[in-house]
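FAQ: What does a multi-protein file look like?

Like this. Sequence, then tokens, then the next protein.
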Amino acid sequence: MRSDHMLPRVALIDARLMVSVPPAATAHSGMDALTQVIEPYLSNKANPITDALCIHAIEMARDALPRVFTHPHDVDARSHMAFVSLVGGIALANAKLGGVHGIA
């Protein structure tokens, strides 16, 4: 089900574009980003690289997610959550997960 055609050539991530996202959408997408770094960490196909990325991203989300919810214009916290989301994609692909995520 996985194909190189499901992977982007470029991903542009700019936290400044996220400051107008409503709090509910921020919470939902932030929890989704957190979930997507927990999933590869728990995968039986995880490896030391995905584990290191995921552990760092889980800790980063733990600190940044409450901040983006309570302070929506905190670009630093939004940048951290954007990084968590990026790591989720990298870790999912490298832990042999992500077919369904590519469709979603």
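And here is the next protein:
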Amino acid sequence: MIMHCKNLAISDGTYPDPYVKTYLLPDPQRLTKRKTKVARKTINPTYNQMLIYELTLEDVRNRQLLCGVWDCGKLRENHQLGRVMIDLSAIQAAEQTVTQWYPLKVGNSTPSLS
């Protein structure tokens, strides 16, 4: 479940319209791409959105979850605000949840994803 982001960067003096895009890697054909809804004009969006993958537990343990936070551009190209790679090898059960903040990798600031 993608819950929240906080302290996202303001790139051009306006608040972003952020959304989260995920992939389970490796994924050469991008079949595991999922997206949240777009949150309008905020640096602290709340999604509380479940992104579902139907894979075996063994397959999940052999992957990493790439989460990218993007600004949805209306008159310009979407651009990435930050990203984080989450190792899934320690998942013990299909129902296991991990709730924590993950710092995004981006420029000089460090926004977070939960």
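Q: Is there any per-entry metadata?
A: Some entries carry free-text notes. For the entry above: The longest strand covers residues 79-87.
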